Amino acid sequence: MNSALIPNLDLRQENVAFPLRMENNSNPPAVPGGHTHSLVILDNRELDRQCLAQCMAAQKADLQILAFGTIEEWKQKRDEYPPLSAILLNVGGKKIDEPAVSEQIRKLSSEFVSTPLIVLADSDDFGQIVRALEYGAKGFIPASVSVSVCMELIALSVAGGIFVPASALFAMRHLLDSSTSTARPLAGIFTDRQVEVVEALRRGKANKIIAYELNLRESTVKVHVRNIMKKVKATNRTEVVFKLNDLFLSSGSAANSLC
Predict the structure, then answer these.
(1) Neighbours of 234 (CB within 10 A)
(2) How far apart are CA 104 and CA 160, in angstroms?
(3) Which among 159, 154, 160 has a CA at the least distance from the CA of 41?
(4) pLDDT in tens, 43-87
(5) pLDDT reported for residue 233
(6) 186-249: what CATH class?
(7) With contact defined as beta carbons under 8 Å apart, do 98 and 118 qualify?
(8) Which is it for the CA torsion 244, 235, 233, 104, positive or negative?
(9) In the chain, where are the structural domains located?
């Protein structure tokens, strides 16, 4: 393409690397040094990932932004770039529970254990957010946020935090408020006493408080919690809450479909 035909187009790429094979098989332009870490954007849509990378690079000059179609492409040139800080997987309008997407999240999160995987998606559906975290993502960013906010949320994940949209919290609150109507469908999964413990767990109550309110020994509560974790295949209390809320969401949807 002759750049002279587009006089307002700035072709400089000072803060962003596009390690993609060009049509004439030439190497990508060199990127100035000074970057201590890098962020990899994964998106099989070339135009989308390049545009996003350009915008992010303008916001974060000390972070080298890399755009690849697959993680395998990055691995081939990983030695050319600074240490990896995070991976941003842009799934666009795809559903998290689509087999290809869920498998990609699981594979990346298990391979890059010490590197946070953040999902960027068009949707902020609560069920999709829960599944992304369940599959191993350390954050879920809706495409409705600004680039600057997106960069701050990525920094939060790098620091060890987990971000979910406010809409997810509102959805969780709605589930808590409607717990009496959705608890009954779960009776086939948990015992009556476990359902009571489930309700307390979803409200973030400690074992001592649960024991006091249910008139149980704390050791008995711990046994119930362990059994609940086994039933939902969770490894910690945080994961229990996410999976329980997912179960309540599914139960509520099933109930609505029968109405």
Answers:
(1) 18
(2) 21
(3) 154
(4) 999 999 999 999 999 887 678 999 999 999 999 999 999 999 999
(5) 84
(6) mainly alpha
(7) no
(8) positive
(9) 38-168, 186-249
| Inter-residue contact 108 to 138 (CB < 8 Å) | no
CB atoms near residue 104 (< 10 Å): 20
Residue with tokens 């920094």, as numbered in its chain: 155
Distance, in Å, from the CA atom of 184 to the CA atom of 166, rounded to the nearest integer, reads 28
- Residue 90 bridge partners (DSSP): 120
Domain spanning 38-168: CATH superfamily: Response regulator (3.40.50.2300)
DSSP codes of every residue in 29-70: PP--S--SEEEEEE-S-HHHHHHHHHHHHHH-TTEEEEEESS
User: Are 224 and 214 a contacting pair, CB within 8 Å?
Assistant: no
Could you tell me the two tokens for 138? 């350390």
Instruction: Please report, for residues 47, 58, 172, the alpha-carbon distance to residue 247 in angstroms, rounded to integers and kept in the order given.
Output: 38, 41, 12
The model's pLDDT over 130-170, given as tens digits with 9 standing for 90+, comes to 889 889 999 999 998 899 989 999 998 888 888 777 666 65
Task: Write the CA distances from 9 to 4, 30, 140, integer angstroms.
Answer: 9, 19, 33
**Nearest by Cα to 72 from 23, 140, 134, 19:** 19
As given in the structure block, the two tokens for residue 225 are: 């919690």
By percentage, how much of the chain surpasses pLDDT 90?
37
Asked if the model's pLDDT at residue 12 lies above 70, the reply is no
pLDDT at position 220 over 80: yes
Hey, CA dihedral for 156, 67, 70, 123, is it positive or negative? positive
Instruction: From residue 129, give the alpha-carbon distance in Å to each of 36, 119, 126, 165, 168.
Output: 31, 9, 5, 9, 7
Q: How far is 23 from 177, CA to CA, in rounded Å?
A: 56
